[in-house]
Amino acid sequence: MNRPGFLGIDAGTQGLSVIFTDDDMQILAAGEAAYGMVPGLAPECYEQDPADWERALGAALADLRRKLSALGIEPDVRAVGICGQMHGEVLADELGRSLGPARLWCDGRNEAEGHALTDRLGVKMPKRITAARWLWTIRNRPEIAARTAHLTTPAGWLAFRLTGVWTLGVGDAAGMFPIDQATHDYDRRLLADFDALVHAAAGGRALRPLGDLLPRVRRAGTDGGTLDGHGASLLGLPVGTPVAPAEGDQPAALTGSLIGAAGMVSMSFGTSVVANAVGDRPFQGIARSVDHFCAPDGKPINMVWLRNGTTALNTVVEMFGNVTGGGRGDGFAAVIPQVLAAADDCGGLLALPFMDDEPGLGVSRGGSASVVGLNDSSATPGNVAKAMLLATMFNLRLGSEPLDAQGFPRGEIILSGGLAKTPALGQLLADVFNTPVTILDGAAEGTAWGAALLAKYRALAIAGRAPDWAAFLAGHASGKPTRFTPHAAAVRTLSERYARHKRLVELHSQLEGVTA
Length: 516
Prior knowledge:
The protein is α/β, with parallel strands linked by helices and about 525 residues long. It has helices at about 50-70, 110-120, 130-140, 140-145, 155-165, 170-175, 190-200, 210-215, 230-235, 250-255, 310-325, 330-340, 380-405, 425-435, 445-460, 470-475, 490-505, 510-515, and strands at about 1-10, 15-20, 25-35, 45-50, 75-85, 90, 100-105, 150, 165-170, 180, 185, 215-220, 245-250, 265-270, 275-280, 290-295, 300-305, 350, 370, 410-415, 435-440, 480-485.
């Protein structure tokens, strides 16, 4: 049976997935394939061969087609959406040939370049931004830099291999170089400053201006190219099939969570924690806890990221689970009900969850997670575990303070990730931030679904029927979301605990000295 719909492609850090949806965005089948890192690299060095992404795409599509065939479905793909891991550095020559392995978002070799660019440009340039990687390449691999004619991301590379054109969605592009909100293009003044710095670093060698290397920026709904002969052959689709502008995983995840209006905040709690807030204007200045990129329609996104997520909580829960007789992995079933029953002041306990460093909060060394205030009455599994969970939420609030200081709206929190598996904890988050919390039900999550939504939006734009981006996303909400509104009494209690937590974080540097 011929079924019209949309193809979503997600190139992640460990593998690639593809999905096919119908016109109503119901996922009909998915395929996947894995790939690994380049072996033998030094610690903190992470590279992948771009050819592996293309091989994985072919394998994942074969997997998808087998599953669709078993359902009696022949896909009629109206448009293709692509997303991938942000901040990578993929280099190509004038003929579009890869110049070797790509350095990934997690590669840690360019911290000094991030600091140098932040100082020179006067905007936040974290070490993972692609421009910092390119400056490192200029300094450390000048022979490759001299041959480079194109610089893009993993998603941008796949888009080029499918369409033959160098374009990129504005969200992924913002992970390469800062975007000017007035033009929704790279900031020309900052490009000139970058080139001046590079001229000094290049030692007289001729290098192309960065603006000539970067892919052309495209917003959601605009032209991301169409499948050329190679792309059509690889995907098994007709030449000329529309392709949406390729996006980064974070903008695609926001799309998959249907987050598009200013004031909406996506929060995901896992081993790390991220809060992506849609802004109504650009952030002013530099804050160590806040990074910046763009939504697919160009709206500014302010991101607060915590390295220390639920790891300390998980450690405490499993410890108590073992003590009470449950095997490893059974602790949550035993302890979480006690967390939910514990008072909001945790019996007076405060905690620090720093199993690792936390650069955004000025914590330079981890390994000093702690609990303060234990006594005969407060030392219960529920109190200790809840104090650890609250510490992570408080740290996210602390990292968000620069946004509050500039008056950025925060009208609704969309919660996803591991914490959403215990929906009742959404109430605690609502009370900590004094903001309504929603856990979506029925709206598929994930970056591949976000990529498919981008494909649908491109198809609607071609037909002249594309609504406003936020309205488009809101129109795909389904099911019955779980919602939590702040409780005034809990907000007062947790605000008092938050003030104490901030003082404890300020003392952490002394703890680092004691535990060194």
